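debug: dumping io for the single-chain case to check the tokenizer round-trip. Nothing else runs in this session.
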Amino acid sequence: MKSHLCLHNLIIGTKILFVVTFSITVLTVYADLHHNTLTVDATDRESWVYVNLLEGEIVDIKDAATSLEWDLGFQRTVVIANGGVSGSGDAEVLVLEDIDFEEILEAPEGEYIADTEQIATIARGDGWYTYTGPPNHWILPNARVYILRTANGNYAKLRFMGYYENNETKEGSGYISIEYILQDNGTRNFIESAPTDVVAHRKLTTTWGEIKQAR
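debug: decoded output
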């Protein structure tokens, strides 16, 4: 917001002329959708890897219990969200089945659940993957979509794409790939919208003549 106030005093003989100009400009900032695909190296069986979905990158977290800088944590096949027992954020998850990722245009109302001592919310039900067992012992992502309220209250839709460095040959396990779309303004909308700039102007000019007429 820009505000300008200019006061000019002009003395002509014994008369004083006042000119006051006041203007306001308001510019709105519009929201963005963030559409990213990330591959997370979760191969370490002892350490967690944390991801900030808004930044679209892995972040170094000193204290995961108190930090709001991460949304999801990864360790091998385990995935946690920054809420409930896993962190101090507002993260909760709603699991959707029998629907395509592209068909979800808005984060629905529903029972969003945070991580508990018993289970991470992304692991509920059949979890995000299926283990094939012998002879291949593959980890294959299930066809479901997760609606995530992030640590800071934004909404994202997310799906798991794979568990391998090379998902075609299934070589290099522990590399979790995710695709997500995040709305950064706190709304539930997953539709790209055109930017809208709103500019408001107000200008007030008062002269000595107008002051005399008002008396």
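debug: round-trip ok. The chain has two domains: 2-28+197-214, 33-183.
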